[in-house]
Amino acid sequence: MNYTGIDFIKNKISPIKTELINHKVFESIITLDDMSTFMEYHIFAVWDFMSLLKSLQIHLTSTCIPWFPKGDGEVRYLINEIVVGEESDLDYYGIRKSHFEIYLDAMDQIGASTKKIHNFIDELKKTGCLEKSIEKNDLPFHVSEFLKHTFDVIKTGKPHLIAAAFTYGREDLIPEMFLTMVDEFKKQFPDKISLLNYYLERHIELDGDHHSKLSENMMIILCGENKLMWDEAYEISKITLEKRINLWNAVYENISENSKTIV
């Protein structure tokens, strides 16, 4: 199997990922209130990551009754393995939960508001319309743009594009200074930050190592030797990372404004 497609994408998106890792938003998080602001934005990215994941499962495995074998058995294994970890992991207390639910628990512990994300999801359940749910809940511009892009990718119905956004378009590297800061918060406020610390540890253990390798293997099988598909996968990865940068810009601006107000 030709692996040049993997190297091609990694090399092309490397500068954007470096920009993400070094984003000023991480240095701006000084207090628990700052962290709460960060989490109130980030939760939407955690949620739509699950939507990408389930879209891949629908496309690459049989989810209908009656059941019939579908597609490549290796691809089925890869996506189902990731789903198990992301949708039914063990939380801090040993209870099975999705990473989205674990993150919500961490928000509750730190005192971050979960009202926006809950209201957004409740509205989406009622209407099934992403745009209406965004408008009704007056989501910040860059949050809405991030979500719209993700669902535009999903709507293409093309597994290699969805897999690209899932594999390369997300933040799979967490700055060391951010982890150090969370660790310091945990020492000062053990009853406020322990669940977030646990989430990050699981994120690094699963997403940053095991799941990233599974995802890349999935990309290799889906794109194969097709240069056009690899080029398309790169474009989607690039745009998704740019949307993430815009999201971090919005978080940074919000934290900065809150700091000015406090002063």
Fold topology:
Layout: H1 4-21, H2 24-28, H3 32-60, H4 73-87, E1 89-90, E2 96-97, H5 99-110, H6 115-127, H7 130-136, H8 141-155, H9 159-167, H10 176-188, H11 190-223, H12 227-262
Antiparallel strand pairs: 1-2
Helix pairs in contact: 1-12, 3-4, 3-5, 3-8, 3-9, 3-12, 4-11, 5-11, 6-7, 8-12, 9-11, 9-12, 10-11
Note down, in words, how this protein is organized.
By secondary structure, this protein is mainly α. The protein has helices at residues 4-21, 24-28, 32-60, 73-87, 99-110, 115-127, 130-136, 141-155, 159-167, 176-188, 190-223, 227-262; strands at residues 89-90, 96-97. It has a two-stranded antiparallel sheet with strand order 1-2. The longest helix is centred in the C-terminal third of the chain and has 36 residues, at 227-262. It is globular. The model has no long low-confidence stretch (mean pLDDT 91).
Estimate the global geometry from the Cα principal axes: globular
Tally the helices.
12
Proportion in β-strands: under 5%
> Low-confidence stretches at least 5 residues in length (pLDDT < 50)?
none
Question: What is this entry, summarized?
Answer:
The protein is mainly α and 263 residues long. It contains twelve helices and two strands; from the N terminus they run H-H-H-H-E-E-H-H-H-H-H-H-H-H.
